[in-house]
Amino acid sequence: RVPLLRAIGLDKAYGSTPALAGADFSLRAGEVVAVMGPSGSGKSTLLHCLAGIVRPDAGTITYDGRELTALSDTARSALRRTDFGFVFQFGQLVPELTCVENVALPLRLNGEKRKSAEARAVEWLARLEVDDTAAKRPGEISGGQGQRVAVARALVTSPRVIFADEPTGALDSLNGERVMRLLTDASRDTGAAVVLVTHEARVAAYSDREIVVRDGSVRDAEWAV
Ligand code: ADP
Ligand code: ADP
C-alpha cells in the first residue's frame, strides 16, 4: 500500500547545527510509528517537518498525494487544522479556557458553532475518562488529566494523523501508560495514524513499528528507496 505520509532525503540545519541529514520516513493510514533515538538526534525536527511546521532545507514530503513541501504556508496551516492533531509534552492547553473550551477550540477554529463543538468536546473528554474536568481550567487539574485533555483535543477533529512529541514525558509511569493506552485505543477506533516521538522503550511498545534516528538520519527499512 502507498504510504499516507512519506518523506525522502530530508535535510535541516539550524544555522551551522545540522538537525536532519538524509532522513527518510513513511507512515501508512492508521499505523502507529514510534520515532526513537537519543536526545538531540533530530526526532522533534523530523516531527515538525512531517507536520508542516518546519520547512526542510532539502528533501520532499508527500501527504495523501500532495507534496507538502510545495504548498504555501497558508495551505499547510489549513491542512494542519483539518487533517492533523497534536499532543506535546508541556504547555499545550490554554490556561484561560476551561477544559471543554480547550478541546472545542480546534473545532471552533474550523468554523463550528459553540454548542455543537462543545458537545463533541464533552464526548471526547468522556472517552478519555476526564469528563469531570470539563468546567475546570488547566491549572486546576493534574498533569495526567491535562495530558488526557490534550489527547481529547488532538482527536476531536477526527484527524488522519496525530503527531505526539514525548506525550508522556512529564508523567509518572502509571499515568504515562494510561495516556498511551487511551491514545492508541482512540487511534485504532478512529483510524488515525500516529507519529510518536519518544526515547522510552516502554512508550514505544504501544506502536506498531519503531524507527531510530541517529545524528539526523533515519533509514526507514520498510520503505527503503
Ligand atoms: P527534546 O530533546 O525533548 O526534543 P529539546 O530540548 O531538544 O527537546 O527541544 C525543545 C524545543 O526547543 C524544541 O522545540 C526545539 O526545536 C527547540 N530547540 C532545541 N534546541 C534548540 C537550540 N539549540 N536553540 C533553539 N531552540 C532549540
Ligand atoms: P531530539 O528531538 O531528538 O532531541 P531535536 O530535533 O530537538 O532532537 O534537535 C536536533 C538538533 O537540532 C539538536 O542539536 C538541537 O539542539 C538542534 N535544534 C533543534 N531545534 C532547534 C532550533 N529551533 N534552533 C536551533 N537549534 C535547534
TrEMBL record:
Gene3D superfamilies referenced in this protein's UniProt entry, alphabetically: P-loop containing nucleotide triphosphate hydrolases
Residue intervals of the ABC transporter domain: 5-225
Coiled coil (residue ranges): none
Sample GO molecular function, one term: transmembrane transporter activity
One cellular-component annotation, GO: plasma membrane
InterPro entries: AAA+_ATPase, ABC_transporter-like_ATP-bd, ABC_transpr_LolD-like, MacB-like_ATP-bd, P-loop_NTPase
Superkingdom of the organism of origin: Bacteria
UniProt entry keywords in alphabetical sequence: ATP-binding, Nucleotide-binding, Transport
Protein name, as recorded: ABC transporter ATP-binding protein
